[in-house]
Amino acid sequence: MSVTLSTPVLQPAPAAPPEGAHADVPYELIELFFFAYRDFVGDPDRILADYGFGRAHHRVLHFVQRRPGLTIAELLDILQITKQSLNRVLKELVETGFVESRTGTQDKRQRHLHATSAGRELAVRLAQLQGKRINGALAQVGPEAGAIVARYLSGLIDPSERKKVQDALAGPR
């Protein structure tokens, strides 16, 4: 599959297929995903580095800000990371004042997560950077592109995870 971009800034040069390449593998799209992801997370990475944070902090802060009151169990389910990984990142976010953990009112064993005002401010700042990049790309391909891109990206998600992702996309509770 050969990809031709409508953006004059980036036109992939016809490349010789790699040795052992298969015609059914969309190498150009795979590579574009790598580059797009690099730049999509690169803007927030630079800001997060000022706080000593990384991408795991970004993901946690994003979902905590978007879904106030999210439980630790729900966050683990969304992110599909180990409890150990989450504990380290969450501890740092709590200690630095970006997230607070509150005891559940109905079940005292539950911990409900909330972004503090500093956490909300940082999460929105990062989302605005990424939103600007997304909106710029969508503007290059036309008004109908958002829905098409959303369907395409949804198609990349493991079918067994789609319901969970749809719930996570529901945003604030």
Evaluate the radius of gyration.
Answer: 19 Å
* CATH fold topology: Arc Repressor Mutant, subunit A
As a percent range, the share of helical residues equals 55-70%
- Name of the CATH superfamily: Winged helix-like DNA-binding domain superfamily/Winged helix DNA-binding domain
Domains, number = 1
Inertia-based shape? globular
Strand content: 5-15%
Runs with pLDDT <50, length 5+?
none
Which structural class best describes the helix and strand composition?
mainly alpha
- CATH architecture field: Orthogonal Bundle
At the first level of CATH, the class is Mainly Alpha
Biggest sheet, open or closed, and with what strands and sense? 3 strands, antiparallel
Characterization of this structure:
Residues 26-158 form the HTH marR-type domain. The structure is a single chain. A hairpin with a 7-residue loop joins strand 2 (99-103) and strand 3. With 173 residues, this protein is mainly alpha-helical. The model has no long low-confidence stretch (mean pLDDT 88). It is built from seven helices and three strands; from the N terminus they run H-H-E-H-H-E-E-H-H-H. It has a three-stranded antiparallel sheet with strand order 1-3-2. It has a single domain (42-169), classed as Arc Repressor Mutant, subunit A. Helix content is 60%, strand content 7%.
Question: Can you give keywords for this protein?
Answer:
173 residues; mainly alpha; Arc Repressor Mutant, subunit A; 3-stranded antiparallel beta sheet; 7 helices; globular; MarR family winged helix-turn-helix transcriptional regulator; WH_DNA-bd_sf; transcription regulation
